Amino acid sequence: MALVKNPLMSYEAAGSVAGVTYSKGPGGAQAKRKPIPSASMWGMRPRIRSILGWLSRQWASLSDLQRESWRDWALDHPGSNKFGDPFIMSGANAYVMLNHAAVRLFGVGAENDLPPVDPPVSSIEKLTGITGAVSAGDVDLSWTELGTGIAGDKWEIQMAGPFQSPGRVEVMSRFAFKQDVAGNVLLDTVSGLDEGFWYWFRVRYVALDGQVTAWQYAQATPKVTV
Asked: Cα(first)–Cα(last) distance of the chain, in Å?
């Protein structure tokens, strides 16, 4: 319980009330609040870290031949850094990258000891987001694809927002997983959004073997209560 000698806003207040700590220092009276971690700290991040750790241990259990096959796959599938320059992953990086996507969306048991042979059967060509047609707080997403998706794969949907107004540039650091749908579906409704705000969405195809395609982006504002 806080020890308050005078009203809270006085120079003599000391202690903590409602998460705010009042004290006196060399510079005078102070009121401080400890930072509160973002909601994602209690959401996906612990699960993501646990999957990464588990896959690292799984990599150690693979045979030399299996690890060599992942090294070969990595050589044939160079990535690119944030500057657009190509780089070659290690076999361990390739194993963790693909299997992390597989386990995160399909669950434990979807991990693969050997790398994929074929590329994903589909990829997203264009994403469209519009105000929902049915319920307040809804945004309707639809997309076209290159190829033909299959029910065993998934479309991963991520979202950033809410924002006060529409933007011209996606806020990459704000995107977080929202939901997914079967790989043979080409539309989805995102519900429970704040009315009067704008959101960015992005969608990509995720194959059962963990391979992912490029993102496509769209923004929309949800249906408001009439």
From this structure: 46
Joined together, the tokens standing for residue 100 give 């992390």
Q: Are strands 122-131 and 139-147 parallel, antiparallel or unpaired?
A: antiparallel
pLDDT in tens, 75-127: 999 887 778 788 899 999 999 999 999 999 999 899 999 999 999 999 999 99
pTM across the whole model: 0.76
Map out the domains of the chain with their CATH numbers.
3-33 (no CATH), 39-106 (no CATH), 122-220 (2.60.40.10)
Q: Are the CB atoms for 115 and 73 separated by under 8 Å?
A: yes
Spatial separation of the C-alpha atoms in residues 205 and 95, rounded to whole Å? 18
Listing DSSP states for 87-132 in one string gives: EPPPHHHHHHHHHHHHHHHH-TT---SS--SS--SEEEEEEEEEE-
- Please enumerate in sequence order all residues whose Cβ is within 8 A of that of 113, keeping only pairs 6 or more positions apart, or say none: 62, 66
- For residues 76 and 119, what is the distance between their CA atoms, to the nearest angstrom? 12
Q: What amino acid is encoded at 77 in this protein?
A: H
DSSP string spanning 47-85? HHHHHHHHHHHHHHHS-HHHHHHHHHHHHHS-EE-TTS-
**What is the dihedral sign for C-alpha 110, 115, 119, 123?**
positive
Burial of residue 29 (CB within 10 Å: 0-12, 13-18, 19+) is middle
With a CB cutoff of 8 Å and minimum separation 6, the contacts of 3 are 14, 15
